Amino acid sequence: MPKLTVDGQEVTVEPGTTVLQACEAAGKEIPRFCYHERLSVAGNCRMCLVELEKSPKPIASCAMPAGDGMVVKTNTPLVKKAREGVMEMLLINHPLDCPICDQGGECDLQDQAMAYGRGLSRFGEQKRAVSEKYLGPIVKTVMTRCIHCTRCIRFATEIAGVEELGATGRGEHMEIGPYVEKALTSELSGNLVDVCPVGALTLKPYAFAARPWELRNVESIDVHDAVGSNIRVDYRGREVMRVLPRLHEDINEEWISDKTRAAIDGLMRQRLDRPYVRRNGRLIPATWAEAFGAITAKLKGVRGPRIAAIAGDLVDAESMFALKLLMAGLGSPNLDCRQDGAKLDHGARASYLFNSTIAGIERAGALLLIGTNPRLEAALINARIRKRYLRGGFKIGLVGAKADLSYRYEHLGADAEVLREIADGRHGFAETLRQAERPMLIVGQGALARRDGAAVLALSRRIAENSGMVKDGWNGFNVLHTAAARVAGLDIGFVPQAGGLDTDGIVAAAGRGELDLLFLLGADEIDTSALGRTFVVYQGHHGDAGASRADVVLPGAAYTEKDGTYVNTEGRAQVGARAGFPPGDAREDWAIVRALSEEFATAGIGPILPFNTLAELRSRLCALVPTLAAVDSITPAPWSAFGVDGPTDTQPFASPIGDYFQTNAICRASKTMAECSAARTPAVKGATGTHG
Amino acid sequence: MTAAVGSSTFAFSPENKAKADKAIAKYPSGRQASAVLALLDFAQRQSGGWLPREAMDYVANYLQMPLIRVYEVATFYSMFNLKPIGKHHVRVCTTTPCQLRGALALVKACETKLGVKLGETTSDGMFTLGEVECLGACVNAPVIQVGDDYFEDVDAAAAARILDSFGQGQWPKPGPQIDRRNSAPVGGATTLKDLIA
What we know:
heterodimer; A: 7-stranded mixed beta sheet; 28% helix; B: alpha/beta; Glutaredoxin; 2 domains; globular
């Protein structure tokens, strides 16, 4: 291992580290623009120059491998002069528009110009100006500010896997951009804003909205997919101004998906801010007492089996738990959290988790994707697969619909028959999986949310068992969820109780008039037109499909407005935090359910729920489901039999996500997401403002 | 992964396709992108001296490269023209040695003769006038490049003559425009005379 001397201090580093990293290990700060630890080394900004003994000139520390016996100096007059020179060069064409620049206050160039610059320029000529580039509805460009560090090009090429950015022209005429202007086709494009060290790429929806020092922030968890990305929510008053990624090496590294970042404008639109009761076919604003009264009146004398509840995709564990207790008190066995009808086996925890863990993908040797498009269903898991793929020696097979996943794979087929062949060892890919060290498979909801879902699950289990995916210290059987609420729902058993109906059963029974009351907790993705004349209570935060069908609407809180526990697809419990209060009369969801139970108790319908605070609720929940108490840790789930062997359909698997930008009520209320969606779909010829 | 398929109304002629495949065969399999410069050149010649986007997209798809990587190459090299040009691309070298030998006057002469400024195309579409960086023919400075040919030791009169004959549909003789053989000394050999004799 190379041993270096940095400013007289000895450091020993791993072979393959750079001088810059060695300096950091010695506690020295090295300014940089182009260097980014997750991207390849470019070495073109020259800001990281340091003095190296026996070298005739300063060296770019980011591009120089650390060698044994190197003597590095980072605080000499030569280094100071070199940095001042580089900074003066970088600023030659950089506009002095910090006061109107959205990067102001959190700009690397601004900070480093303060720390390492001369403070004045000798450049008297005209600065060059560069035209703006269109990169889609999320990334705003002011290309005159660009310092050509090429981080964005490298991010797009390496991490996102879409080679759509480049440097065209040369010398003074070099420009960064897509050349042919169109929206980036990546689900990770918002991260360009984070990697850009200057104000060239900024967040379009956030343009001129706030300064960083005006914002307060909380550390929270994202709910737009089941990855459980760690986020920082920046807010001002009640309004969420932006969402930034928070470093979590095992989940999202330092990236977040575009939906996580840019769907937040949906939080301010289409909100349910007061209770509603349907009278004469119209939803009329009401008070909480009126809304509760309408529900209680409806429930009087109704037997438990004629009541049902479905929980949606964005719900926190506490609310689901409270609703489960409420339903138990009413004697109803009909509850389900799988509103897509996925045939997930809630008995065996290993059967519905991403057992290998997201970070575990990097240790895997081969991958079989079943009925999933991870790029749309979990963009960051897809980025992790790509990261593993780029390292080489990673064979990927796909059973399902062909799609550009940003890596090469072998398309094995589209339906369950291929799975049977692999399970029986009659398919070539079975051998690939067997040969690989630590093989893994990922089953998507597209393969499970169908009539033969249980059989597909059983087939996947057989593949896992027959190809050595489950062994000591490794479980390569993975289910990829699309809903942030799903794993928590299964963990706490928000599923049909003895003799109860599942989602399909509930909807069918409602259509046949066999239900008297259906409680939708943020459930918008079911067929709300098929519920017949059933009395529907919708509790949630957005006026979407569920609320428009409801007879009583109870306004709840969105994920940024409540503390709540979410369990990601790996089975990792994480706690989200409240950034602001819900709008108007809306309340936190667990509190609404608790208040409703009190109303029921008064009317003599059911018992009062045994908790008065969220902490009390949580301690009960954790006592019942210990995995929820172990925040941010993974409890390996024991392997057992699951799934039901049976015949499979011949219809091909399809991803559950048609339009990446329109998957839940928040996205559907978001203007930015609508723009993103429109940018992806080819324009209709002759479309007008009212088109579609 | 390769990027989306771009527009393509362009396709190589059979001869160019054969040449392209020959160029690609020079590189190991999987490294076909190395032939991008050759293919762009063929595409430019086939498209009348410039590279429409369709041609760049075609080359990208031909080499299974992301479109942007081809755009980067095509915009980097000044030999690729991204806008339509006249039938003859006249480029005057204005790098230091040529400049010392009167290149700037030559540019003026060409501008006057053709009635266009640098970077412009004559209204009849015959000539596009441009400048070019060092062509490596400094010993015969100043130099004008027309298409693939170098016209060396050019003065204003010679330039006018050359442009005239191009204008009349002829191909004047390239090389030194004065009494001189290649890069040999003006007026014949000055050393080793007895060896030649």
